[in-house]
Amino acid sequence: MILKNRVLGTTFAIFVATSCANGQAAPSGSDVDGGSNLDGGSKSDGTSPDGASCGATCDSDGDGVVDGIDKCPKTPAKAVVNKVGCADSQLTPKLEPTFPPYGLTWTPTGDLGKAGGLTWTYTGIQRGDLFHIYWIVCDDPATPCGLSLDGPIDVPAENWVFSAPDSDLPNGKLVFTNTTGILLADTTTRPLMGRLTVTIVDASNVAIPFVTVATLGVTARAGTYGAEIMGTGYKVVALAEVEDTLTSTWTPYMDYYDAAATPDTGDAGGNATTSFGGSFYDK
């Protein structure tokens, strides 16, 4: 998708991983190590203390969830579990395939390539039975995350690459760079540097740290960095810029493109293409 004067190919989908989670501790009086239940529950062999079968009330691991609906047997002693008997340690983050997930409201404003950038605001997250929610940047393998001013994103150099010197991960700042070019009306292509800056804050405008997906324990599809969303809302601001090698000045990419002598000057099309998005995972 090629657009001019607005974000090109921006990925809006929020993908999350479905799994179980919610704080539900073992009931008082239960033997959380999987042995007998002091209130007349079951032993690990599915019988009551007097040797009779416990039937539908069996809770072999003593987590407060009966065996008939317990999806995670042998829950560690005293672990908080969700509604189907799974502890945090027994779950793996999964991709959430729906958007918007968690009953949240997503509000996009601004433009990725204009001064001030693009703002995505997420409010009203209903965490339900979840231990963790993660937001992973540039995770869709079907949509290259990058920037081009000379047509489609069609060479590896135009894909966003993490820039450690420019990023400040503990303070919620993630920076990517690339190289591209702009096709001019005289058919020449001028080389450019590209930069994508992404910041993330919670509902109180406190920075949310970015970390690697490995640190989050997420097996992502394509993303390498993300953040854990702890509350019921957060905000992402993203700005894509280019640096003209002749002037060494960084300019929002659509502002630069609109001012340049391009073949399509004055129309709503053009050769400017960009892609940026985030996916949700959870457990």
Structural domain count: 2
Shape: elongated
- Which class do the helix and strand fractions yield? mainly beta
Task: Summarize the helix and strand pattern as letters.
Answer: EEEEEEEEEHEEEHEE
Contiguous low-pLDDT stretches (5 residues minimum) are: 1-51
Mean pLDDT: 83
Biggest beta-sheet profile: 7 strands, antiparallel
Q: How many individual β-strands? A: 14
What separation lies between the terminal Cα atoms? Answer: 33 Å
Strand content: 25-35%
| SS field, number of helical segments | 2
Helix content: under 10%
What Rg do the Cα atoms give? 25 Å
Could you characterize the architecture of this molecule?
This protein is mostly beta strands and 283 residues long. The chain folds into two domains: 24-80, no CATH class; 94-282, no CATH class. Helix content is 4%, strand content 27%. It has two helices and 14 strands; from the N terminus they run βββββββββαβββαββ. It has helices at residues 213-216, 253-259, and strands spanning 94-95, 105-110, 118-123, 133-137, 147-148, 161-162, 173-183, 189-202, 211-212, 225-228, 234-244, 250-252, 273-274, 278-282. The strands form three sheets. Strands 2, 3, 6, 7, 8, 11 and 12 form a seven-stranded antiparallel beta sheet that branches. Strands 1-14-4-10-9 form a five-stranded antiparallel beta sheet. A two-stranded antiparallel sheet has the order 5-13. Residues 1-51 have low confidence and may be disordered.
